[in-house]
Design brief:
Layout (H helix, E strand, L loop, with lengths): L1 E5 L4 E14 L2 E6 L5 E14 L7 E2 L4 E3 L2 E14 L2 E6 L1
Parallel strand pairs: 1-8
Antiparallel strand pairs: 1-2, 2-3, 2-4, 2-5, 4-7, 6-7, 7-8
Length: 92
């Protein structure tokens, strides 16, 4: 799926991910490729995703922590929208 993580200050990531784990208001949840459309509020916590495709094609901020194919970043809250295999996360 196409993943885009945006904060008021900068774009943190733009690229392909196979799974994304998000800190939702009602608990942590995960979305995978071809997931049903969803909109969710996010709370403070770790956003973790697994890269897919060619990682060299991804635009990645220095704020992200990468360990192999997994990448994480701490957020203070935000909103996530997934539609047509495209996940956009507006985070603080």
């Amino acid at each position: 799926m196409k993943l885009e993580i945006i904060t008021p200050e900068a774009s943190l990531f733009r690229g392909e991910a196979s799974s994304v784990t998000l800190p939702g208001l009602d608990g942590v949840f995960q979305v995978l490729n071809n997931h049903a459309p969803i909109i969710s509020s996010l709370k403070s916590g770790d956003l973790i995703f697994e890269l897919s495709g060619n990682p060299a094609d991804a635009e990645m901020s220095e704020q992200l922590v990468q360990s192999g194919s997994k990448v994480s970043v701490s957020i203070k809250g935000g909103v996530a929208e997934l539609n047509n295999n495209r996940l956009i996360i507006l985070a603080e």
